[in-house]
Amino acid sequence: MTRFFEEFLREAEKRESRRKKEQKKKTETREEKVKKVRRKIKKKPIASRKLEVKLPAKPKLSFLKRKKSVPKPQLIQQQYKYDYVERCNGYTYAFDLMNRLLYVWIGKDRREIEESTWGCLEALRKLATISEIHVVGDYVSVLDDRFGQFTVRFADYKFTKEEADFTVNNIAIAAKLHLTERTPVVVGDLEGFRVQCKKDLVGKTTQLVAVRLRKIPDLVELLRERVAAKLLTCVLTRLPTVFIGEPGSGKTTALNSTLLKLLAIFPKLNISVVETSAELRFPTGFSVHRTVCTGYISTEEALRKAFTTERPDILVLGELTDEVDIWMNFVRSGQACLTTFHSPDPPTFVRHISMKMNAYALDFFKLIVHCSRTTDSLGRRYYRINAAYIIDSQNKPHLLTELSEEEFLKILEEDYGERTPVVSSGNRLFDKKSLYMYIKANISKTISI
User: Fold this and answer.
1) Which of 19, 95, 244, 415 is most exposed by smallest CB count within 10 Å?
2) Taking the CA of residue 328 as centre, how many other CA atoms within 13 Å lie in the half-sphere pointing to its CB?
3) Among 166, 190, 212, where does a domain finish?
4) Are residues 188 and 257 in the same domain?
């Protein structure tokens, strides 16, 4: 009995404690719940709280598998047809003689090309057989002494109009030329070339003409030795001399050859030269006084000063244009003088110059040298002296090639006997015959520039 009651009491106590707990849970306020949650959060460290972020699945990497090699697209190469290939100074030149095209491979990067004064034209300048370079916008052409005229195509470089403007301006600056809209045409020398830079104010394009300064030919290459000796004798006998021909026919070259031969035979000659642009070339070590008229002094004033102050043995005018009056004064004074004039042939020259002078031209020009240029179908040019005429006192022309030595000396003695040569032999003056014989004996002498 007692045992039964003890078990009964235990069960009752358990039920009572269970009831109290359930009642306590029911009576628990919301604030106590919040406090419990806060206590749990404080007990748990922050680092242990993990943020679950779903990341995209990583690609599977396999180091054993090789990637498939994708072939690079090949550049489209243009096929060039050419007949002659030449390499010079790292550049390659290919001549297409049928289509008159010159392909040039520069083989340098763009930065190196732009740092050069001539730009991509440097490749054309380096080839010694190219005598002329013409640039009009992005169009480039050259004249080759062997094959003639060609249009230039740069195979590995694009020559644009903007690059042409940049290159021409660089060349003008290097040649110390002031190329502006006020002075749209300038001429100068640069690295063995005579360059003409031009701005086309209408078409807004820049242009360039670069002509290589060639070696001046010896006079005996243009004329036979006897004819050359006769020509030099006429010049030193104070006969006013003119070289005529069309533009680009070699008048200035023939004049330069004559002056160089005179200096080779008579190195003590005093020569005065007046030019609008420095075209004639002379070596150093000789008494050659040059005046280039570039605006600060007129041609007439330069001629007067050279005639009165420099005391020349020979006076040279680069080109006769409007200076006919002062030329007539020089001829009347007996001054030995030479010049050039644009005229296709002697009859046209006599007619035009007579109209300028209001006088008969042959009274003031006693030696006329006719120069000419021929161009073949390929564009190659050939220069020569067609004829040289001596004018007698009756204004009758005689070809120097057809005159014998006796006839030539007879004209000099009878018609120009009062004119003494400008050179002497020691303490005595030359007469006409001894001067001719001396020149003939020393005609092989040359000087180099």
Assistant:
1) 19
2) 14
3) 212
4) no
Domain range for 184 is: 84-212
What's the rounded Cα separation, in Å, for the pair 207 and 200? 7
Spell out where 18-165 has E strands.
84-88, 91-96, 101-105, 130-136, 139-144, 148-154
pTM across the whole model: 0.72
**What residues contact residue 381 under an 8 Å CB cut-off, 6+ apart?**
143, 248, 373, 374, 375
Per-residue pLDDT tens for 106-133? Answer: 887 777 787 888 989 999 999 999 999 9
Helix axes 225-236, 251-265, angle to 10 degrees: 80
Tokens of 441: 């004996």
State the sign of the Cα–Cα–Cα–Cα dihedral 336, 361, 412, 401.
positive
Domain-terminating residue out of 212, 228, 256: 212
Rounded CA gap, 329 and 335, in Å?
Answer: 9
Q: What is the pLDDT of residues 242-294, one digit of tens each?
A: 999 998 888 999 999 999 999 999 999 999 999 988 889 898 889 999 998 87
